[in-house]
Amino acid sequence: MRLKISLLKEPKHQELVSCVGWTTAEELYSCSDDHQIVKWNLLTSETSQIVKLPDDIYPIDLHWFPKSLGIKKQTQAESFVLTSSDGKFHLISKLGRVEKSVEAHCGAVLAGRWNYEGTALVTAGEDGQIKIWSKTGMLRSTLAQQGTPVYSVVWGPDSEKVLYTAGKQLIIKPLQPNAKVLQWKAHDGIILKVDWNSVNDLILSAGEDCKYKVWDSYGRPLYNSQPHEHPITSVAWAPDGELFAVGSFHTLRLCDKTGWSYALEKPNTGSIFNIAWSIDGTQIAGACGNGHVVFAHVVEQRWEWKNFQVTLTKRRAMQVRNVLNDAVDLLEFRDRVIKASLNYAHLVVSTSLQCYVFSTKNWNTPLIFDLKEGTVSLILQAERHFLLVDGGGIYLYSYEGRFISSPKFPGMRTDILNAQTVSLSNDTIAIKDKADEKIIFLFEASTGKPLGDGKLLSHKNEILEIALDQKGLTNDRKIAFIDKNRDLYITSVKRFGKEEQIIKLGTMVHTLAWSDTCNILCGLQDTRFTVWYYPNTVYVDRDILPKTLYERDASEFSKNPHIVSFVGNQVTIRRADGSLIHISISPYPGILHEYVSSSKWEDGVRLCRFVKIDKVQYINSIKDLPSKESKMAHILMFSGNIQEAEMVLLQAGLVYQAIQININLYNWERALELAVKYKTHVDTVLAYRQKFLETFGKQETNKRYLQYAEGLQIDWEKIKAKIEMEITKEREQSSSSQSSKHIGLKH
Asked: Which part of the chain is the IFT80/172/WDR35 TPR domain (predicted)?
């Protein structure tokens, strides 16, 4: 993923640009110290001056009045609040008419923000005061007063508290009097900007200590950046909370929500004082110190599923690559791509006006239908259908494009839903409530009506993440969830009369996922990666649950890893530094699940008997190895200690055997490295590599292999003879060492 920067040759403003704000996904307003408010139309690339403010008004912050949720897609913001250095804030219409100017603070008004509902405005001043105002600009209360200027202020996701800066400290203060105030030291320099996302509930802060940081809503640090060369002057969350942008002097950075960086650009902008994301989350605008407004499009997002990789190459184009045969398909769209999801053999793409559904079997004829509402913020897929979430509601469609249902509940806010708070299976939709976080709403997928007798799933603690299992019968459908204590629970979604048991499966679980092919659950616990091969065991006999677990050390994933997907028997985990790790789990439990669901009991029993056979055969083959060192090395390999096994063989002078174990493990780089280092069996390694590539119909691309293969003819007869010689030599060495031992014993 990267940013595609566009910057005009000459700036449209004569002085520094202090703030920017989007009205639609294609229209932006910018304010500058030259007193101009300029409108930018990105479709026509035209700019026009909306109004020239009086010479004593130097704008500092701009925030458009929020559109009320669920209004049709063509609507746009009609007015904005502009704060200025003269101690006033101004309510200005879209046409540039100043509707009202309000004396707000002594000294400059450094920030002004509408709450999510548009019912209140918060302002922060150089005088250290935080004030709450009504929609029409009437003072409601002075929330806080301090001795240092407040450089930045934002509303909490529920509009019931505000976060603001106090020098090096961050403070979260609820609107209710006498409620607990949360305060912590966040930076080593003055904090210049904060942002708080309503979807992921995470906080961003930027400071003069040249760092940006990510916090949870309790003030716990989640990410701390390396110091930059210059102070960080702006930070902003993307609307869906998956990405954020960071601005500094000649610097624009795109980051994942966990903090690691996707892209770093160095545009000629001066300091970027303010960053605004477009409503659809596809582009960024930055207010620059040299009079420019910088625009950046997010491109090259990637989606992967099995052997397919889809890349967004341009705003309206995608490339699909099948890694098995290197076939490439180009997909073009009428409008810009906003969201996409690839799963269950289908690619679902939402643009600004339409939804496209592609089958992985045929990329040429997508199914296309018009979208009901505005920007899609989330796409979830199940085997039979998919879910679209936008500002107006939740909509379930079949892969043939047929509308199925639209679940609703009182007080539903679709703008704050994400993949952790909504889950979809073939027959059920689960949604975590934001108003009461201990509750999960359950709906029938086919009708959109509450499941069973309409009873809600209620837990004793706040719930953080939910996930429905994907296979099996409706009556057996289970939901797993993690609560705020990081405990993992499982329960049935079927709720008729009697209260269903909620059973604890594990503790200190940070992330979870169900397999897409069978009801196997995996999760990252404190220091372990755990797989529950049959979580339903807890309903039969809790004592045998440990026998159905697979556990391995998770320290290699570093801090705060996240499970991206669980496809078949492969789990993909993203580490805190952004790198992906793929883990394969045993395929046998999945096959056993399949046999049981098809009532193939005899096949299931046969599989259980067979599973250990490969290990038994391997152990038997170790017995037949000629030397003690070889046996030792293969026992080490059996227990997963590859490097130690190689070391044992090399120390015993069994170089060929060390090369061969690397060939057997497809560790081609190391096999060639050893052959070159010890000047032996280079042709053997090249021969096995060639055979491997021919099996898959691939050409050699590795530069080292191409270098050593140049001019070399592979002669398998000669290679087999060399291998025979190595084995004979090893036998002779072994028997001679044994006979020397016998002689020593006799003496």
From this structure: 612-732
